[in-house]
Amino acid sequence: MHYFLRALRDAAKSWPLLLASFLCSCGVASLWGANIAALFPIIEVTLNGDSLQTWNNRRIKDAQTRLEHNTAERTRLEDWLKTAGLPADQAASGRTRLEAIALGVRNDEALLSTSHQLAPWIDRFLPLDPFTTVLWVVGFVVVSTFVKHALLMTSTLLVSWVAMSISRDIRVKVFDKALALDRVQFMRNGSAGFMAQVTGVSDMLSSGITSVYGGAITEPLKILACLTGAFLISWQLTLACLTLAPVVGFLMVWLNRRIRNVSKNILTRSLGFHHVLLEALNNVLTVQAYTMEDFERTRFRHCTTDAMKVGMWQTFYFALANPITEILGIGMVATSIAVGAWLVINQQTEIFGFTMTDRPMTVPGIMVFFGMLIGASDPVRKLSGVFTGVNVGIVGAQALYPMLDTPSKLAEPANPKRLPSPHREIRLQDVSFSYDGIDTVLRDANFSIQFGERIAVVGPNGGGKSTLINLICRFYDPTQGQVLLDGVPLTELSLHDLRRRIAMVTQQTELFNESIMYNIRYGRWDATDAEIEEAARKAHAHEFISEFPDGYRTMVGPNGFRLSGGQRQRIALARAFLRNAEILVLDEATSQIDVESERLIHDALSLYVENRTVIMITHRASTLALADSILHVEHGTITKRPATKLQAA
Description:
By secondary structure, this protein is α/β, with parallel strands linked by helices.
């Protein structure tokens, strides 16, 4: 609940829109009650052939007559009670009668005051003819209904705008968080987890906010308007009609807990569903190559079946919410009909010894009372949907905000230091690193790389070569020790300042489902078309790009599937060349290129690596020939040697 309240506070920042929505909801509730209050008594009066003016005058006259009679009776009783020697039972009966008469006097005085206040307005604005009055009442109901729905629509749109704005902001924050997290925490959620958060979970939160600021305000206001009208007619009878409210309240608390638990299960199944789906589709080549289609179909069917089962429980509890709340509405109406009918038919003010009204109820009065309770029962029924939406929103908030509050382990310094470009030295000082805190991947690494030095990183697979690159690029921070740039720890530099100095090409080339020009320009977004073409020529990509009908406008497809492996790597090299960074990182960057392309790219690298630091993970002899020094990484231990010495060995 804490996180959902936080979401509501975020939404409350749009208070002008929510205030306007609240005022619209107040208007809806007022018109809802006014339609009921006005319709029945006016129709009752006019169908008896009276105008409202005649009815009001007669009401004033009757009240004055009763007032005169009750005043005289009260005076007589007061004098009688002063008589000495009255029996105790007669005195008690007389005092009870005197209290009833006093109450009647007060009611008649209030009725006279109200009638006198209404008289000028009725005489001025309402017609004398009964049928014309009926037409006016019908017209009022039609117009007020139209206004009510216009206000309701306005309120709904305003709340929806606020809720969708919050949902959009949450999606943006989730996306920003995914881009900012370190690799370890990113992989805990995975692409599927973040996708589920951006889509379904954000919609759950939006639904909860809409329910609170929409239905949770409008519907209770309508209930309040109707119950206020019913209380004014008879507060005792209204309370009698609400006897089922505690039972229904208990059932709703129980149901809310069940809905919340089921919604959590739905969310868990949804995350599993996304994981299975993305894993199978992203690795479809492996699935097909190893003929695992049936296995993946079965796995997908199992997770969707589990989601369907939980979804059916969710549907059951959602459906159960409606009859539970409707029990309260029907109970109110049924009680009011039974008790009210008995009071009217028998002209009584009590039932089973309990006082229900101060005076016997009239047919118009009980009709208005019935109408008020019927008017309250409809929003009570709709509250079931509000409760459901709030519970879904709570679950969504509990899933979103803890993830958003998770700090990245790659913390940005409060006051980052700035270094001149180009740098002078990269140094690892007593660096050790472990991914899980158990197995040490690098151990006590100490070496330096001078600006302009070309380093080849070699060693067996799993020895720690890629980890070394990740530490230098600060995708991770060392478990122990420091990585320094010109003597300054990387943790004291801004990530943007560090990574703007680096261009990187990996073995697993990552391309966007955009044009070739878009993918190369990603290296430096302000580059001109001519600079992009020059970078492509350096990477020997211009030749095959020119052969495409659309040239640089050719769409490469998801992750570049329309291109060969060698073409993808040359585009990635062109992107790195375009960046013109002072540090070039090549992680097996020529592993998927044919011999001729490798020779051409080797020539391009020979020119490009001048006046920049180059770190190359490679096993290719042609690439090793570019190196000044070689870092041998094996079992977490790093040894730096001059290239000539290693080759001689």
